[in-house]
Design brief:
Layout lengths: L9 E2 L2 E2 L18 E4 L2 E4 L4 H4 L14 H6 L16 H18 L2 E4 L1 H4 L20 H4 L1
Antiparallel strand pairs: 1-2, 3-4, 4-5
Protein name: Neudesin
Main location: endoplasmic reticulum
Family: Belongs to the cytochrome b5 family. MAPR subfamily.
Length: about 140
């Protein structure tokens, strides 16, 4: 399941639910390509040569690949949001790539549900995009 099909990922403030539409993972030529890192969903379509069909980082798309980005790994076991057990160096690398690659180059199109929903699925009333470490008004609107 990809970003469009997973119940636990969110685009903007709209929950992405099961859909007959193709996943935004670069496998369909006319569809956007999304990747989530640190709970932030980026549109990486402009980097199709890196993230599109057959491209080196296509495995990262259509899901939250935070762990894979931190470890510089394309191992399917690492293509998850879970950062448990990452080393300080891996966490530093994650922050560096998040800021200097994803945030600098690609538009933010949403947030994962883990960022804006409570575990029971109810809205997290404490979530405010402006309080997020990546927030920049010009990037958001």
């Amino acid at each position: 399941m990809g970003l469009r099909q997973r119940k636990d990922l969110v685009l903007g403030v709209l929950e992405l639910c099961l859909s007959p539409q193709p996943e935004p993972d670069g496998m369909e030529e006319d569809q956007p390509i999304y990747i989530a890192v640190k709970g932030v969903v980026f549109d990486v379509t402009s980097g199709k040569e890196f993230y599109g069909r057959g491209a080196p980082y296509n495995a990262l798309t259509g899901k939250d690949s935070t762990r894979g980005v931190a470890k510089m790994s394309l191992d399917p076991a690492d293509l998850t949001h879970d950062t448990t057990g990452l080393t300080a160096k891996e966490l530093e690398s994650l922050d560096d790539v998040f800021t200097k690659v994803y945030k600098a180059k690609y538009p933010i199109v949403g947030y994962t549900a883990r960022r804006i929903l409570n575990e029971d699925g109810s809205p997290n009333l404490d979530f405010k995009p402006e309080d997020q470490p990546h927030f920049d008004l010009k990037d958001e609107f």
